[in-house]
Amino acid sequence: MTFLNKQLIQEEVYTGILVLNIHGVLVEVNNHFLDITGFEEKDLLDKEFDCFSINKILSKDDNSTFGNYRSLLTGKDGARFMVKICYFYQRKENIEQIILFIEEINDVDTTTESIIKQIFNHTKEAIIVTDNRGFIQTVNSNFSSITGYSEEEVIGKTPAILNSGKQDKSFYKQFWQEIIDEGCWQGEIWNKRKNGDIYPEWLNISSITDVHGQISNYICQFTDITNRKKSEEELHFHAYHDSLTSLPNRNLLFEKLRHLCVRHEESPIYFAVLFCDLDRFKVINDSLGHDVGDELLKSVATRFKAKLRDNDIIARSGGDEFIVIIEGKKALTNMDKICLQILSMFDEPFQTKYGEFKTSISLGVSKFPSDSTDITELISFADAAMLKVKETGGNHYSFFDLKEKMFIKKRLELENEIYQAIEKQQFEVWYQPQINIKTHEVYGVECLIRWNHPEQGIISPDLFIPIAEANGSIKKLGYFVLKTACHQLRQWRLSNLFTGVMAINVSLRQFERNDLLGQVKKILAEEMIPGNAIELEVTESLFSEGNNYHIPILSALRELGVTVAIDDFGTGYSSLQRLKNLPIDNLKIDKCFIDNIEHSPEDVAIVMSIILLSKTFKVDLIAEGIETQEQANKLRELGCYNQQGYLYSKPLNSHDFELWLMDFKGKQQSE
Ligand code: C2E
Ligand code: CA
Ligand code: CA
Q: How close is the Cα of 262 to the center of ligand 2, in Å?
C-alpha cells in the first residue's frame, strides 16, 4: 500500500516514479521509469535501488524529509544517463516509504559533454565523482587502472572501498572538516587496490556547489605516487648512506649519535667512538687507481660488518675513514680487546684485480661520556688519537688522553684556520744557511716555513705541518713554499747575493696525484732558474716498502737537474742496501746523531758509517743541527764539511738572511 494514488503512478507522466520501503527495496515503479531505463517491472521489484541510500534519510529525525540530487542511472542495455532524483520520505501509521521522482536531464550540450568526457578519461590522474553524500557516480579509466576496480564495481559505493586502514579515524575527521571548511583537501594517503596492494596516492578533493550554493558533488583526483615515493626513499637512503659501501654515512652517524645523547639524558649510557683510518690508502689509491681503492674499501666494509655486533654502528665518514660506535659499559672496559680484533681484520690480505695485497689500519678511541659529551668533540678526539697512531707508523690503536684536550682543541682551531691563513698571507718562508766549512762558502739555503699567526705569534712547522698534511692543505702550502723560495732565489741570483742551491722540504703528500713534478716545472720556467738550483728534501719514509711509485717522479725531477736529499737520515728504517738503487743526491745526517757526538762513541760510529755510505754511493752529505763549535770540529775531523745549524745561523726571514749573508761575506773578505 502506498500513499500515492495508484492512478497517478500509472498515468502518462513524464517523470519516473519509484516507491521504496524503508530498507531501500523497490515496491512500486511507474511506466515512464520502465520506458526510460528499458527495464521490466520484474527486473526491479523487490530489489534494492542502488542510486539511493536510505541512511541519509533515516539519520534525520523529522517525519517527513525531502531533497534532491543528481545521479547517473544505468539502463538495462548499459547506457548511462544523468537524472535528477527528488526524494520524499513519509511515515504514517508505522509505515515508512520513500518516493523518488526521477527526471532525465537532457540539457547537457553533447559536444561539451564529450569534450569533458575526453578530458576526464585522458588526464593522468584518476578521477572519482561522487554525489553530495559521497556515493560514487562516475570514475574515469585511470581510476580503474590504478585501483583495479571497474566503473560498474564502484558506482553507487563510496570511496571507502579503497580504504587501506592506514589512516585512523581522527585523520578522516580532520580531512572532512577541512573539506567542509575550505571546500578542498589535498595530501598524501595510503589506499588499497582491488588486489589488496596498499599504495600511496596524492589526493586532491574538492566539493562542487550548485547554483544555490549547496554542495552537489565531490571530485576526487589522485595519482599513484608509488614510484615517486620509491625514488624519495632512494634519495633518503643516499642522503644517509655511502654509495660505495652502503654503510651509514656521516649524516646518519651524527643522527644516531644525537639519538644516543638524547637517551643519555634519561638514563646514563656509555659508548666508544673508534676513528679508523686505513694506512697508506692514498698511496694505493693513487698508484693503483681508484677502482682498486674502491674495491679495497668495499672489502674493508664487508670485514667490518662481519666482525662487529649487530647493534654496533659502523659508518664510512669519507675517504678511507670509518667510524665505529660501540655501546655498553662492559664494552668500554673491553676496548683493548675490541681494537685488537679490528686490527686483526687486516691480517689476511685483500683480493683485488691486481692480486692480493695487505694493508693495515690505525684506530683512535674516545669515550662517552668520560672524554666528552659533545659529539663533534668526541669524534675529533678519536681522530686525534688516531693521528698519534699514524705518527708512529700506524697499524695500532690509541685512546684519547684527556690531558691532551687543550692541545687538541687548539689543533682543531688551527685546522680550521689554515686554508684562510694561506689566503691571508700569514705564512712566511725563512732561510737557514748551509755552509761548507772547508771552502767557507754558503753553498746552500734551506727554506723553512713559518706561520705568523695574528694571535699566537710565530707557530712552528712541527705543529702545523702534520695538520696541513692531515687536512690536505699541505698541497697548497707546499706550492706556496716552492713558489716563494724560487721567486726569492731568482732575486738573489739577479743581485748576485746568493747563487747556490735552495733546499726545499716537500711532504710525502705532495707526491700524491703527481702534481709536484708539474708544479716544479712550471715554477722553474716562471722564475727562469735552472733545475739544479733547487734541491728537494724528502724523508726516508718516501722510500719505505710499497712506496715505489714515488721513484719515477723523483727520477723525472732529477732529469730537470733538480737534486734530491734524504732528510733526517738515519732515523728511518730504510735498509742501507736500498740506497744503491734510489734516485738521490744527498744525505742529511739527522740532528740526533750530532747532539752528543763529542761524547758518544756510538753516534760517532753511526756518523762514520753514513759518511762511508755516501762515499760508496757517491752522494753528497750534510750534517744538520750543529749548535756548538765542538760538534763542528768533530764532524770536520770525521770528514763531514757541509754543515747547517744554529752555530752558523738560525733560520731567518729573507731580510734578516740577506743581512746575515752580507755580514758573512764581509767577514770572509776581511779574513
Ligand atoms: P727539518 O726539515 O729537519 O728542518 C730542520 C729543523 O731543525 C728546522 O726546524 C730548523 O729550524 C731546526 N734547526 C736547524 N738548526 C738547528 C740547530 O742547530 N738546533 C736546533 N735545535 N734546531 C735546528 P723548523 O724550522 O721548526 O722545522 C721543523 C720541521 O718542519 C722541518 O724539519 C721540516 O720537517 C718541517 N718543515 C719546515 N718547513 C717545511 C716546509 O716548507 N715544507 C714541509 N713539508 N715541511 C717543512
Ligand atoms: Ca729539512
Ligand atoms: Ca732534518
A: 50
